[in-house]
Amino acid sequence: MNIQVGVGSFKELEFFLKEGAREFYCGLSYIPSHVEGTSNFKNIYEIIRANHIIKKEKKNFFFTANEIDSSAFKKTIDTILKLHENGIDGFIIKDLSLLEEIKKKNIRPFLILSTLSMCLNSKSALFYKRNYYIKRIALCEQITPEESKKIIKTAETEVFLKHRESCRNFNGLCFLSCHGPKTTPCLKKYNETFTMPGFSREENLRHLYRYYKYGTKILKIGRSPLGELSRVIFFEAKNIIDILKNSKNEEEFLKYSLKFTKEYDKIYKKLSIKYGFIC
Amino acid sequence: MLEKAIQLTPLDRISSAELKKFDRVYIGSNFCSNLIPKISDIIRLKDLGVKKITVSTPLLTDNDFNKTIKLIKESLKIISKIEISANDIGLIDKIKEIKGLDILLARPISHDWLRMNPKSLKKFLKRFRIKYVETDEEYMVKRLKDAKINFSFHYPLEYLSMSRICPFEKKINDALCEYRCLNKNIVELKETGRNDVIYLKNNAYFKKNIPVKIKNIKRTVLFYYGQKI
User: Fold this and answer.
1) Phi, psi of B53 (to 5 degrees)
2) Which end of chain B is more exposed for a tag (fewer CB within 10 A), N or C?
3) Residue B191 pLDDT exceeds 60
4) What is this model's ipTM?
């Protein structure tokens, strides 16, 4: 399993290249891409320059344009064409109309279907693959590895490190007033005792083990608005992949990964106090 | 003429006299896979004298996908014309050729599609043979009022979010369900220290909305949660 990590500056890129990330992705502030307040490269030329650096290391670089906004549609497609011409490997897309437009332009970049597309079954995966040449699917955070088995057989897949980075509700279809890690409504308390339910840490770690066994190749680290947080998640992911590779079975993986992630909790706790996000 | 419909889950019990106040009945859920109706639910509605039925379907895992296709085929043996309110792209693509079916683009995917550029949206609606776009957003209907798109408008609950882990059962909604949401038709949730209320029904969260009169709205759909009709 290799790591794909979101980057928003040359400093971040240099750091993650040195630490051995296999794939990189980025966004631009004027192209909608879901995460609010995340760090982005300043312009398309910076992305082209970053691509040259990544290519020298024989690694892959993707650009994310995974929100729908009809007002930014033309700008989005122009940016995609320009980046494609300049050799970026591919794009992370959610919107059907954007996929349709890319197809019409007769270009065939490596397309990753965003986790926000809510592709929950192999028939939907096939639809995207046959009609839009989707090569990889970012698996929806809310389905289990067992439910994903047929999708994993249909296309390459990637998953997030879900015990650190996932939404409790269907994130691609969530319209709660969420503006980044400081406001997260799904982590708040309602009626004194109610919190919106999500998968437990144990479930998420078991999922990761099974995704790995079923053939998911990429572990994805999101573009956190806080650079320091992305680095911590990256190191945790690297160590968890080591535990995955060295565990004899799921129970052994769970035992060591649970112990290990608890150690990381202390770091997250300190960061949450420092930056004021809900952890 | 504006058609009046009511949205029921298979759990809802409602008298035939109350049902008669509506031109059409929606059965199922666009949010929870444990609320996909059974063929017996369709038969029950038919026996109650309901003539126009819409089957509401949620996002589907592979297992639910096959169950849904089976339900659609069995339903068509009982009723010659049926509507499917669908939000799963794989399902929409699969059923678009089936005769006797009308397809509605369901919430919550419709929230996304309505934000496409109108030209692309219309092309997709035509390609997938979509009769109405289901929405609960007055703002979006107004924005697209000149686009010649027909809507069915859901009220009094506007979709906000949905969960895979049932808020009532605290487990994933993929298997055996005790339908603990049955007697808690709607739960008001108030964030500590704030006045805004969100509403929990089944596995989804909503805010309140009201039906609006706009020419593109061809149908209103009352979301039933045990309220007096």
Assistant:
1) -125, 135
2) N
3) yes
4) 0.94
Q: Among B5, B62, B54, which Cα is nearest to B33's? A: B62
List the single residue in A69, A149, A196 with the smallest CB-CB distance to B167. Answer: A196
> With the C-alpha atoms ordered B37, B39, B43, B46, is the resulting torsion angle positive or negative?
positive
| B158: phi then psi, degrees, rounded to nearest 5 | -100, 130
The DSSP secondary-structure symbol of B36 reads P
Name the closest residue on chain A to residue B207, using Cα atoms: A176
Angle at A127 between CA B83 and CA A174, to 5 degrees: 70
Residues of B in contact with A119 (CB under 8 A): 89-90
CB-nearest to B190 from A100, A169, A190 is A190
Choose the closest CB to B189 out of A94, A127, A194. Answer: A194
pLDDT by 10s per residue, chain A, length 279: 999 999 999 999 999 999 999 999 999 988 877 666 677 899 999 999 999 999 999 999 999 998 777 888 999 999 999 999 999 999 999 999 999 999 999 999 999 999 999 999 999 999 999 999 999 999 999 999 999 999 999 999 999 999 998 889 998 899 998 776 667 888 889 998 999 999 999 999 999 999 999 999 999 998 877 778 889 999 999 999 999 999 999 999 999 999 999 999 998 888 888 777 665
Q: What is the pLDDT of residue A180?
A: 66
Residue type, A88: I
Q: Do residues A94 and A73 make contact, with C-beta atoms less than 8 angstroms apart? A: no
A141-172 in b/e form (b: 16+ CB < 10 A) is bbbbbebbbbbbebbebbbbbbbbbbbbbbbb
Residues in chain B within 8 Å Cβ distance of A204: none
Stretch 127-186 of chain B: residues touching chain A, C-beta under 8 Å: 159-167, 170, 172, 174
CA-closest candidate to residue A27, choices A45, A43, A12, A51: A43
For chains A and B, count residue pairs whose Cβ atoms are closer than 8 Å. Answer: 133
